[in-house]
Every structure is written in C-alpha cells, then in structure tokens.
Amino acid sequence: MQFKYLKQLLCLFLMMIVVYVPNVVFASLNKTIIFVPHDNRPISFKQTADNIRDLGYEVLTPPEELLGNREDPYAKPEELSKWVIENAKKADAAVISLDSMVYGSLVASRKHNLSEDVVLSRVHNFEKIHQANPNMKLYVFGSIMRTPQTSEASGSEDANYYAQYGTDIARYTALTDKLEQDGLTHKERKQLKQYEQKIPKAALDDWLSRRQGNFLVSKNLIDLARNDVITYLALGCDDNAKYSQTNKERRALDNYGNDLGELKYQSVAGIDEIGYVLLTRAVNNLQGDIPFVSVHYAKGTGENTIPAYSNEPIKKSIATHIKMAGGMKVNSDKRADLVFMVNTNFDGTTGAANDLNNVYIPNENIIDFVNMVDEAVQANKKVGIGDITFGNGSDNALMFSLYGKNLLDKLNAYSGWNTPTNSTGYALAMGMGANYTDRVGILKMLEVRYLDDWLYQANIRQAVANRLNSMPGEGDYGNTKTRTLPAEKLATEALQKIIADYGLEKFEGQSYVADAQIRFPWQRMFEADIVFPEEKVSVEEKLEK
After folding, report:
1. What's the pTM value of the predicted model, to 2 decimals?
2. Which pairs from 60-65 meet CB under 8 Å and 24+ separation?
3. Do the beta carbons of residue 437 and residue 288 sit within 8 Å?
4. Using one digit for the tens of pLDDT, what is the confidence trace for 262-287?
C-alpha cells in the first residue's frame, strides 16, 4: 500500500515538471496524437499506429503517398511538413520521424544527395510545427546513420558502391573508431593504411560527407530540444558495432547533448522500434502514469548478451528503452506493472530465425525460461517477452513451449520481429500500453506478432522462398516482381493452416484471425503485412482480376 502511494507521488512530481517546463503545457485529454513514421513498412506504420488506436487514442497519420517506400524512398518531405503543421492544432502530442521530415525516409537518410543547406533548412520545419501549436508535446526520433558490417548486410539500402566496398568501409571505420577509443596496434595501423588505399577515395568521401550532413542535422535537433521546441529527442542506431563510425558519431552526439538530461534526450541501439516507444511515452504522459518494469533474462550470458547489429549489452538497451517509453526500471516483481522477460541464447549468440537450427525441440535453457514465464503468469503478473535468441523471427522452441503450456494467450506483450533491440523495444512498448486496454485488446496486439514474427518470419518465409523459382514469372527473395501474388497466395494458405493447427483464432475475441492473409507491400520477403479480411480484398480476388 505504501508503495502505491509512493508511485502516485512520483507520477505527480514528474507531471509538475512537465507542466512548468517553458513553452510546454500538460496535455489535455482529447487523446489525439500525430504520428509520422520513418517509412510505410507495415510494422513501422500501420501496425504501430493500430496498437495505439487500440488503447482508445485517435492517431492521425499522413497520407501514405507522402511517406517513403521501396520505389520512392525520397518521398515528399516538404508536403509532409505542411501536413503536420496543418494538423498540429488538433493534437495533444506528435511523434515524428526526423528521417521522413528531412530526407524522405530511413532508407533515404543513407543514400540521399541533398546538400547541407537543404537538410538544415528542413530542420526548421520542426520550429514551424511548434509555432503552430506550442502546447503540443513534440517527440522526435531519428537515426544515426548505420554502418552495415558487410556489403551483403546492406541489402541495397545504402549507396550503390557499398555493395562492393561496404565490408572494407566498415572495417576501415572500425579501425578509425578504435584508434580514437583505445589506440591501434602496429598491425592495425598497417591495416588502416591498406584500407585507405583499397577503398576508392570518391566512395569514401561520398559516404563520410553524407554522414557529416546527417550529423549536423542531429546536432541541430539537439539544439531544438535544448530550446524547448522539441519536448523529447531520441536517436537510434541499427547495424552498429563496438567499433564503427555509427558508434563514434553516437558518442559525439551524446556528449553534445549531455547537458539536456534523460528527460529531454537519449540515444539507443536500434531504430525501427523507436516510433512505437515514443508513442508509448506520449500515452504514458497523457495518462499521467509511469509504468514500473522489472526485467529477467534467460540463463547463461543473459543480460550481458551483445546481440547482433548492436554495440552494447542488451541490458543497457532495455534500460534505455524503458526510460524512453516513460517508464521506470524496478528490481521487484511485486512493484512492477510489467514483468519483462528476455529470451537469449545461453552463449549470447544471435542466430537467424530462418536457419535450419531454429528447431521446435526445446533445450534446457528454453525449458527453464518458459517455467519462469509460467510462474510469473500463475502469480498473476503482467508478463512481456522480448525474444532475441534469433534475429528476424521467433525462437520456434520457445513459441512451441509457450503453446504447450497454454501461455500464448496469457502474455501481455511479445516481439521477435527484427534485430534484437528492435524486438525488445517493441515488446516493452506493447507491454506498457497493455495497461490501458482489456484482454481482448491485448490479444489483438499479440496475434499480429504471433502471425508475423513466429508463423511467417520463422517458418513460412523460407518455405515460400524455396518455391519461388517454381512459380511463373520473374522474381526472387529480395524482389518478388511478378511472382508477388502467387507468393502471397502460397504464404496465406500456409498461414491459415498453421493458425488452425494452433487454434490461435480461438483466443477470446480473435475469431477473425482465421482468415488472416499475407501481403508483400515492398515486394520482398524480408517483411510481410498481416491483413485481416475487412481491410483489403483477398489475394484470390486480386489474382482473378
């Protein structure tokens, strides 16, 4: 009982801080939030916005043609800014991607040819948004330009020369970062000179000059946060490493914004999840609540796991995500509004979900982890799971074990969808948001993750990819082209069968899930859109047309 009153006092204290920050007034209860994602991918855009709508909020999103997509990553930033300014007066809060507003999209931020003058002029649009509604809380998130560790990891989402020289560029900048942090051995100094000679000067200059422009944009955004134009700024970095240009720039930006404190600015490993994390922060602030989160890890390396695509232990990323979302980490499950459990490999490695070693037979680590989940659920705790044993999809052994213990419909949050930090951040946001809806609403959010992360990413994705060459037309895994519709049909048939096998449509209020369909809006198999029948015409209807 004493703890309950302590939490209420803490919430009141932080609300008072928000009220008296210059130019920021505590939001009204209209429960309207503007959301501008960093592109139109389903999980970045529709799925994230729908999760907030399911909490009872009106989420205003821009016309999709203003957002970056695969065919046109550069989109229409100026028209997008006008749309936000026009709608600002309707909203209590806005969560906005700086990548969309300045470059056109997340992908465009990595390969644009915009001058520094142009990108810095677009930063001023955030001041215009603030002027349109000074009382609206303005939450901004953006990326510190990534450093894919190999040419293959780029996936054609960086400048063209990265496909040939990306691995060398990553190793070169790793050495320059190590030189700054720890110094280099004689052998490493020789390697640094070798990479300088090997990488074409034009390619390296282009890559570094673009980064410099993006770096200045981030510094200007930090200035806007310092001047209370931006309520809160979050910068994220995917495809990162302990030594990398991304890590080097992150340190410099953190140092530049050091005076702001965590209530105004934070950086974190990861980027795709931050839109949802900041939407959750907006909701928590509008609700006047600070969710308390306790965190547990699987045995072995656990909290000290440095997952793939990251440069820091997962415990650090999770601690930052909790703060970014407006929550607070606590050590006691008794005090927690969310008991967050992280599924990691015993040895701390990150596999690929579509590999053959993602089997359904649980090892000892999984058995112990699921027992820990079961104990918390039986104790009536609200449990969320960040599944990071594999990247880009669920751990089959974990999911099958949760199914076997009838736990799938007892959770409050789950994610295992992309990079490990994407997954933990997304699941944390979902778990905090679950405090503001009922069991049917929670299950609606969970179903999408089960269908996408588990059934599609970890299983159907590779099965359909293996059959692409037998389909008429042209297309492959990275660009399905004219094979898109038959691939969607095959994937949908497999999805509906597995849904029935596991009875996912039998969860309370979830009968509609039986007819779920899969679409590939970016014409590649790396991500899917989970579509329910009331949203779009069926794959069969499109094939008939």
Report:
1. 0.92
2. 60/32, 60/33, 60/34, 60/35, 60/87, 60/90, 60/91, 61/34, 61/35, 61/36, 61/37, 62/36, 64/40
3. no
4. 999 999 999 999 999 999 999 999 99
